[in-house]
Amino acid sequence: MAALTDFIARIFCGPSPVQQGLDPAELEADWLIIGLGNPGAKYAATRHNVGYMAVDDVLAQGGDVLEPVRGMDLEVAPLRWGDTRVLAVRTITFMNLSGDPIAPLARALGVAADHIIVIHDELDLPANKIRLKQGGNENGHNGLKSLTHNLGTRDYVRVRIGIARPPKGSSIPDYVLAPVDAGPGFDTAIATAAEAAQLIATQGLVQAQNRIHSR
């Protein structure tokens, strides 16, 4: 009777949610590349989602796709660049909860903060400027605040995509949740951010800074 009940449940309800997605126990990584953003079509083209866009660019190089992970609010794509194992990651939580799934993933994989690359929007850089650094303040960025809180450190690596500040007196939340100023310069910035993440993982932060900051 139990087998029949299970069969009927599969027919009418589909597989159990715990059976869907990648098994976290089978994931391996030397580096995590995390794109910050908000899920859903409403936010897809906004300034706050440039981290998502850069991860999409990373994946496009090899035709890889993100898949859900069982029991975790994130999607991942395992990549291999030479001998380096990389996990491209996009959370499916909202920005201010970004650290909630990332910290358990990093702990489960044994990935230290200095091997976590976070791609995010940066108000304090001119639009489309890319800068790389490790650690430092969050500068009011709620996604970074959540990561710092949950990881217990600021020592993760950042790929910062400049979006500039809004005009004086404008609402910052409205500004970051407004559509990006698309165009060739923006497309180049996203591609450069994706390249920067790969350079960090394969050649180290200093080499990546030398290459990217000279542009």
Question: Which descriptors would you attach to this protein?
Answer:
215 residues; alpha/beta; seven-stranded mixed β-sheet; 7 helices; 19% strand; globular
General description of the model:
By secondary structure, the chain is of the alpha/beta class. About 35% of the residues lie in helices and about 20% in strands. Strands 2-3-4-1-5-7-6 form a seven-stranded mixed β-sheet. Strand 3 and strand 4 form a beta hairpin. Helix 2 (about 50-60) packs across helix 6 (about 185-205), helix 3 runs parallel beside helix 4 and helix 6 runs antiparallel to helix 7 (about 205-210). The longest helix is centred in the last third of the chain and has 20 residues, at about 185-205. The chain is globular and about 50 Å long. The protein starts with a helix and ends with a helix. It catalyses: an N-acyl-L-alpha-aminoacyl-tRNA + H2O = an N-acyl-L-amino acid + a tRNA + H(+).
Task: Describe the structure concisely.
With 215 residues, this protein is of the alpha/beta class.
